[in-house]
Request: fold
Amino acid sequence: MDAIATPDIAGIVADIAAEMRLSSERGQVASYIPPLAAVSPDKFGIAVILADGSAHVAGDADEAFSIQSISKVFALTLALGAVGDQLWQRVGREPSGSAFNSIVQLESEQGIPRNPFINAGAIVVCDMLLGRSAPAEAIAQMVRFVRQISSDDQASIGIDETVALAEQDTGFRNMALANYMRAFGNIRAPVERVLGVYFHFCALAMTCRELALAGRYLMNGGRVDGHSMITPSRARRINALMMSCGHYDNSGDFAFRVGLPGKSGVGGGILCVAPGVASIAVWSPGLNASGNSQLGTLALERLVQRTGWSVFEPRG
Ligand code: DON
Reply:
């Protein structure tokens, strides 16, 4: 079998959506951000964009959902563009092995978060973006960037202000993380401003189709529609971090089951990249114990089983 050939992606995607529709093991919808708790656990969407630009979607692929921590990939991309590799003086590149909102390692590691994909790391990344602009500008820059990489000419991607506000009202752990890092000197702007940016990034609402389009720059060595967004080496490194850190304390299991760079969010979305082959987004709001989409992960596992797209699969 040629592992790269993609014979019937439309059929595979339809099969996966049909299987997921019937599943009774759907996990628990996140409840600590109240608007997320109101989303039906019956939702399931999948979108696959192939390297030739063709799109294959099924289920609720055109319904917008809260991308939450998937925005950490886009925030990292923008911050690397703004400050370059200096970023790594303030954020590590190792899996944390802890929950996404954990504070425990920050004390012994002097306020330097393990990686940019846990909450503490993403909050530092937001602080770096604020070093250059006011909060409203940083948020507007993010919306522009995501619309650009998704080729969203209609400007339909935006921020769900209800979610952003709910995060502000309930984000006590994030406030603790930001204040704690500020005590170590690793947050420089006022904490409320940094968190305002962080919460708005998390509240971006996108469909699976838009998210898979947004991931094309990571599939294509930094390029979208013939334009270079980031260098190939930066795209490769972001993919490496998604593989090692994109699912928090579940990252090893995700690599074992799926074998692709992926980033999850508590809204139930996962953005996954098969470098050179496909950009994939799945969404199902029910989460597993680590806060990653239960059915989204299963759907990706099925997809790689049928396509051979895992990066650990022999090529050609
Ligand atoms: O800060 C939070 O807790 C949420 N806005 C984002 C967390 C998240 O998506 C982690 N994902 N698995």
The chain has two domains: 6-67+205-225+238-307, 69-202. The chain has a mean pLDDT of 96. The pocket of 6-diazenyl-5-OXO-L-norleucine is lined by residues 68-69, 100-101, 119, 167, 174, 202, 264-266, 291-292 (CB under 6 Å).
